[in-house]
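agent> Task received from the user: take the single chain below, predict its 3D structure, and emit structure tokens. No templates, no multimer pairing.
agent> Plan: (1) validate residues, (2) run structure prediction, (3) serialize to tokens, (4) report one or two observations.
agent> Step 1 OK, no nonstandard residues flagged.
tool_call: predict_structure(input=
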Amino acid sequence: MTRPGLSRRAALSWARRRQVTPQRLWPHLREKGGLEGLLALPAAELTDRLGSETAAQALLASVEDLAAERWAAELERAGMRLLTAFDPEYPPLLSEIADPPFVLFARGSLERLRLPAVAIVGSREATRYGRDVATRLARELSSVGVAVVSGFARGVDGAAHEAALDGPGGTIAVLGCGIDVDYPREHARLKEAMLARGLLLSEFPPGSEPHAGNFPVRNRIIAGLSSGVLVVEASHRSGSLITARLANDFGRDVFAVPGSVFSPTSMGTHELLRDGAILCRGAEDVLAELFPAIGEVSRPARSRAPQGDLSAEALRLLEVLRREETATADELSQEADLSAGTVLAALFELEEAGLAGSDETGRYLLLRP
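)
tool_result: status=success, residues=369
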């Protein structure tokens, strides 16, 4: 018989030493019904399964690694929480993927893990349109109790986190470094707000610096925590497309927001739509697909911003619509002498303010003077 807590201690040891990876170990843990069954194998078979004698020895040593428990206790005294894959508080959706992390390092509100969750991801080089869309979608989802998950990167991720913070759903940031590492530096104030009202998670032990290889690994956690992944903007080779592909592999829904056909940051989202992603025109589309009960109970209301808060470009479009009564986005671009991307961002402002909308033919018109 193995002692109670043995799996937790082993998981802490694996996270601390990083000698045994989830990808290598989970298939065998599941096949043998857990750690106890794996430890019962003859040494030669264990070595063969794990691919090396070093890995087998690391697994055997982990169950007696008392230093791992002391390390975990020190981190928890420093204000961090450690959730192992064998703890009851571990996120159930994440445990369903092929290789969930053995340990999650956390700071902030663990209650966020009990809420329905949607990931909003996108380009680090987001356009104003992309940031505005991410802000609106995150705010609306959080307002009805859906946690917004993202990767704490610049651009779309940061906009989504910030907008979701004040709603009851809140936000969860999954980092590609240790949760005590300030990256990216320009998100220092956002990180402080997240510690108070959101949740920071990482698979990487404290002190781990961000490396390029960490981020695809991080992306599987973003997809695994979420019932669906929503891509706002993505270039042809964006890391957000990796998150979308992983979500698809995990059987989760993938949503994409359309953008300008002239914008490089919309190439990836248009490819997703071409390949079968669900068109997202607003939070209502996400709620209807993933959480219909929530969507029926509470439909997000658009804010009514005063015209004085609108940008100069949005005010210019208002004048065109007052003069022309209806117009397509292309016609607005020509009449207002604005680029296609600027027109899309300005139209989003007007829709958010409840001043303009589109009809069934795709033409825009004033909703109120």
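agent> Step 4: summary for the user.
The first helix runs from residue 6 to 17.
agent> Done.
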